[in-house]
Amino acid sequence: MPVRTVLAVSAAEWPASIVNTNVRKTYYAARGGLLLDPERVDFYCIYNDDGNSMAHTCGGGYGDAHCIPGCSSPGQQCQDLNRVWSCSWPPGRLEDAMRAQLQLGGGHARRHNEIVLDTRSIEAHLPDVILGFFYLEDDSTARRARREFMRHFGLPVEQVPLVHIDFSSRASPAIRAV
Fold it and tell me: Considering 19, 51, 104, 108, which has the largest number of Cβ atoms within 10 A of its Cβ?
């Protein structure tokens, strides 16, 4: 993810993925990204699959009682429709979304999930919200973005690690600081 996007957020929402031992998929199978502090990031909703969040806009704004950026409208969310496909889950139903993702994949994630982040929470907590940069295969983009980010904020190298994640490890994703 280019640093200029981090420093000049122009959208109300960012799509991201939650990965763990049971869910080892990201939107782009070979690209890296940012490791964000979950205690400092708010989110609008989560899809247990690819949610096509860019099709759910609120005119570029942060939404209201009738529109949630990147998400299904109130009354049209998964728990309202009593289904787990083509709908989003509100923040309070994160566990349900993660369970539905595994259910649809027969106990393993078939695809990535899509969590829709509120960019205001990211901007409000820069630079500390960025715990590190990661890559899956080629490290050149992540390395360059990390260097620009540290230079912009005047951060020491040890504060923002560059991490290689290998999802092929059997027990859990192999994570190695570079």
Answer: 51
